[in-house]
Amino acid sequence: MTSMSRTTEPRAARGAPRSAGEVAVAKRRRPSLWIYVFLAPTVVLFGMYTVWPSISSLVYSTLEWRGLGLERSFTGLENYRRLLADPLFWKSLWITLLIIVVTVPLRVTAGLLLALVLNNPRLPLAGLLRTAFFVPVVATTAIVGFVMGFVLDPSAGPINEALSILGVGPVDFLGSSRTSLWAVMGVHVWKWLGVTLIYWLAALQTVPRELLEAAETDGAGPAARLRHVTLPLLRPFAVIIVVLTVIETMQIFDLVVTMTGGGPFFSTLATEVYIYDTAFGAARPDLGYASAIGVAFGVLTVLLMVVLTLVMRLARRRQEER
Amino acid sequence: MTTTQAQEPSRDLHARREPGRTRRRPVSDPRARGRGRRRIGRWAQTLVVGALGLLWIYPLLWVLAASFKDSLDIFSGGLGLLPDSWHPENYLRAWRDANFSGYMMNTVLITAGSIVLVVVRCAMAGYVIARFRFLGRRVVLAVLVATMFIPTGLFVVPVVELSDLLGLLNTRTGLVLAIAGGGNVAAVLLYVGFFSRVPKELEEAAVMDGAGFLRVFFRVMLPLSGPVTATVVVLTFLSSWNNFFLPLVFTFSTPQNRTLAVGMMAFQGTNSTDWAGLAAAASISLVPIVLLFLLLQRYFVEGIAGAVKN
């Protein structure tokens, strides 16, 4: 986004061009057909698959519409009235929020701790260890969901085997509404911790080594170096990393659908799963109502992102003032 | 492997690992002793983190091991990884009978198509947005940024309806368009950022040599954008290979078009007791992408780290 201001402006408009090269470039810089040809694929496809859907969802949310190809009728704000009184909708928002509030701090702090250990270039096997934590990130989420169904299985899964050695269990992690959401969150953290780790490692790369060495010569121990050199320099990154982590957490759909399908007793019904169930999963699809949930969820998501971006800006400005 | 090496922090091993420091100081030198202690400290850290790392990949190893067992062995095998007897026929069952060969083909085609479409359209759009002033430039940028955070749940009904109207629902082409056509704002912005930093002298030189718009883009700009393209390819690869929501709703009535992830769901729905077959199917889906990651690790890590740096 910083690039916006950097764009080269047509030279010819500002005064006499200085070289033959600039004349040629300036000539070419005039709006040419090619510009729009290059823009066309994105404008057309993005218009079809992102802009139009966002707008038409607004329209659909005012319809009574029971399936593709079936008749639709205008019902005004009826779907929204229903939404406000729908305990499942509120529950799904609460679940989504809870997942963010629990998993984001976990990932951010655990990722930072791991990154601090793994960032040491003299640590033996650091590269191999980093790989181990990153492998779950590339593993297809939906497949991971099924795999974890086995791993958490109460009768034969390895986790319950391990628990029984300790004399606990068996625990039906996914079958009980008391544990299912926590199991999903645990798997979510397991799956995505590697990304946060990489974020922190990238942030740590920006801490100048000379600064740390200078602090060491001045007699600062590892703890003092961490507290007075590394952590202050990481602070601006912390906000960015939290925001990125929150964005990723909104996409919990794959894991929930494949691990629990939103159950048992709606205990893991994140909002996107509820939208899917209403639009496609139910015996009687309700596309109008699904669109209303989608619009409400979209608005809340964008609001959350705006707030987070403002926080990010504020943090950055404060950093610059120092 | 971490454990065995960590148990014996032999001096020779270290001497070899740090060639610049092979000349050993007399043992009485306190600095040398301090360094030795720190080395042991580092190995202790490796041991702890390594144990955690093993625990981290254990679930995946367990499933890989289960794919070679028979279902009974899985139920009684407990925590052990090695099968009592090897059953590679599990893979045959998943690959042929459950049609994971077809699902693999679909996933590869859809991922490849999405990558090509995203790279081409985002590089082109990013180039003109970064280097030209034209009517509507600000509007295009504003719309891109404004729609960046809209969740899939909001799109999905209209996208399905649109694809249905165009006759693209239930086709792989329609799925590629839905995955790669919308969204991917980050890819456009990555290209905008990159192309706006390319010095204009390069462009001028090419124009002096008589290169036209297309030539400048394809011969000068696009080859320069290698690192950004690598990042975009990796991010698109991950997101389309792992996509689940769209393939799920695009294949309700055409099971032959399912991707691996959706196929897994169907396989589990029909054969929920065939644990060994399911484990083999999961391994078929996971092993290629993990291997690819191990080969191209640098690009994956840089692609993801790029999100923080930018």
From TrEMBL, chain B:
Region (Disordered): 1-34
Location of the ABC transmembrane type-1 domain: 104-296
Superkingdom classification of source: Bacteria
Family from the record: Belongs to the binding-protein-dependent transport system permease family.
Mode of membrane association: Multi-pass membrane protein
Main location per the UniProt record: membrane
Keywords in alphabetical order: Cell membrane, Membrane, Transmembrane, Transmembrane helix, Transport
InterPro entries: MetI-like, MetI-like_sf
Segments traversing the membrane: 43-65, 103-127, 139-160, 175-195, 216-238, 275-296
Residue stretches of biased makeup (Basic and acidic residues): 9-32
Subcellular localization(s) per the UniProt record: Cell membrane
Protein name, as recorded: Carbohydrate ABC transporter permease
